[in-house]
Amino acid sequence: MYLTHLQLKNFRNYECLHLEPDAGLNLITGENAQGKTNLLEAIYLLATGRPLRAGREEELIRWGAEDATVYAHIHRERSLEVQVQIDLSRTQPRVVRVDGQTYRAALALGQFNVVVFSAMDMEIVRGQPADRRRYLDLEISMLSPTYVRALAGYRRALEQRNRLLKSIRESGGAITPSTIELLEAWDEQLVRYGSGVMVARERFISALRPLARQAHSELSEGREELDIRYAPSIEWVSPEREQVAECFRQHIQRVREEELRRGSTLIGPQRDDLLLFVDGKEARTYASQGQQRTAMLSLKRAEFELTLQERQEPPIVLLDDVMSDLDDLRRTQLLRMTLRGAQAFITATSAETFPQEILAASRMYRVQDGQIQLVSRP
Ligand SMILES: Nc1ncnc2c1ncn2[C@@H]1O[C@H](COP(=O)(O)OP(=O)(O)OP(=O)(O)O)[C@@H](O)[C@H]1O
Ligand SMILES: [Mg+2]
Questions:
Q1: Residue nearest to atom 27 of ligand 1 (CA)
Q2: pTM value surpassing 0.90
C-alpha cells in the first residue's frame, strides 16, 4: 500500500500542500521547526485517527484558521484503492470520509497501515502502563475494526459503571434492588466488550512475540534475547472468548465489595500492561539505553512483519528523524526493511548520514516553513 496523493489544508504549519510522493522512498530534509514531523503526523492521523503527539485536536489546525483538512489517496494491492479525508474544526466534531462517505470517526481507522519510528517511541519501553496500552490499542485498531468497536463499547460501559459506583458510594453505600440490577447490567456489558478487548490483545501479543524475538536477535547479532508478554489484570485458563468472559465475570463478583467501597471499577483491560524483557529482565527498569532502543526497533520491525502477514502487503513506514541516532548495523537493518517494497517517508535535518544507495533510490524533498519543494527523483 502506498499514498499516491497527500493534500493538506491549514494543517499545523501547512497552509496548502499537494504532494504526489514516490511509491518507494521519500526523503524529506529541512532545518528544525520547518514541518518535517508535521507532514508525518498528517499521514499518521489518516491511518490511525490520532495525532502523533499528545495534545488537543485543535492544535492540529493552523493558527488563525478555523478548520483543517487532511486527505490522502491510497493505492492498495490487496483491496481497492481508497480515499481518506479528515476535516477538523475548532467548533464542530471532526468528520471522517472514506471514499466520500461520512463515518463515525473511530470506524474509519485501518484503511491503511503505518509503522512509525520516532523519538517518542521510547515511551513504550520506558513509560507507564498507560503508554503501552495506548500503543496496543493503536496497533490492534489498525489491523482490526472489530477491536475498535469492542474498545469503544468497553470505554462506554466502564464510564457508566464507574459513574454508578461513584453515585452509590456518595449516597452512603445504600444499595436497592434496582441499583443492583443496574450494576449487573453494566457488569455484563463490561464482560462482553472487555473479554473481546483482552482476547484481541492476547492474540496480537502472541503473534508479535516470535517476530520481535527474531528481530531482536538479528539486531543484537544473537547476543540478547527479547521476550514480550501480556499482563492482564485477571487470569484465565485458555484465551478463548467464552473462557475469558467467564473468568472476568467471576473476578468482578469477587471484587464487588471493594468496588462499592472505593466507588470505581478495579479490574479489566484498563489495568493491562505489556511487559518487555531483555535477557529475562524487565526492560523498563533494567535494560541499558542501547538495549531499550534495540527492543524498541525490534518491536517495530515485528509490527512491520505482522502487517505484512495479515495484509499481505507492507505498511507505510514513517521514520521521523531517527537515522542519525542509530549505529550502522541498526541503520542498515531499518533501511533494509524499507527497501522491501514499502513506501517510506524519512525525515532528517540533513541527508549526510544516509548511504549513497539510499540517496540514489529516493525522491528528495526540501521543506521550509510549511512549503515543500521537490529536489530530485531517483
Ligand atoms: N497549529 C499550528 N499552526 C501553525 N504552526 C504550527 C502549529 N502547530 C505547530 N506549528 C509549528 O510547526 C513548526 C514545525 O513543526 P515540526 O514539528 O514539523 O518541525 P520539524 O521540521 O519536524 O522540526 P525538528 O527538526 O525540530 O523536529 C513548528 O515551528 C511549530 O511551531
Ligand atoms: Mg521533527
A1: 32
A2: yes
